[in-house]
Amino acid sequence: MPFRVPEGPPVRLIARLRDDVGAARAGDPAARGALEIVLVYSGLHAVWAYRVTNRLWRARPFPGARLLARVLSQVARSLTGIEIHPGATIGRRLFIDHGMGVVIGETAVVGDDVLIYHGVTLGGRGPGPGGRRHPSIGDRVEIGAGAAVLGSVTVGSDARVGAGAVVTRDVAPGATVVGVPARPL
């Protein structure tokens, strides 16, 4: 009988960590290697901290877990300059490049293989439908530096949001939007 790698939490964790490092390598042509990425990429550190705080936020393994999750997320924010609320939903392989000033709100949903540059806000605009105040970002979306995606809007998969754009309406899949307010190219 051939040897099989056991499936379980440690194997999934290692696979997730490798995915995150791979996303950084793919998203940053200046990356010189996995060790450098693991040691100095603040976007990666913020995503890893989010994964811990999100687990505490959702599972609530003990009384006060949500408070601890918020405290840890603020510590990560102080260290990385990136604020990701523990209640946000983030898919696989998110890469935050030069992430200082990135803010991802509590009800935001971010898909897989998303690239976010510095100064991006995925923020709220008051109560939205079903209690959602923050945007939903599809898979393979790129959001340029300084862009703001505000309110309960949807940015479709494969879309691009230009640097400095302010998105307050849905963005169609595959579209590129620029400007204030954001408009399709």
TrEMBL record:
EC number: 2.3.1.30
Top-level taxon of origin: Bacteria
One Pfam family per UniProt: Hexapep
SUPFAM superfamilies the UniProt entry points to: Trimeric LpxA-like enzymes (SSF51161)
Enzyme superclass (EC): transferase
Pathway participation: Amino-acid biosynthesis; L-cysteine biosynthesis; L-cysteine from L-serine: step 1/2
Keywords: Acyltransferase, Amino-acid biosynthesis, Cysteine biosynthesis, Repeat, Transferase
Alphabetical list of InterPro entries matching this protein: Hexapep (IPR001451), Hexapep_transf_CS (IPR018357), LbH_SAT (IPR045304), Ser_AcTrfase_N_sf (IPR042122), Ser_O-AcTrfase (IPR005881), Serine_acetyltransferase (IPR053376), Trimer_LpxA-like_sf (IPR011004)
Catalytic activity: L-serine + acetyl-CoA = O-acetyl-L-serine + CoA
Family to which the UniProt record says this protein belongs: Belongs to the transferase hexapeptide repeat family.
Name listed for the protein in its UniProt record: Serine acetyltransferase
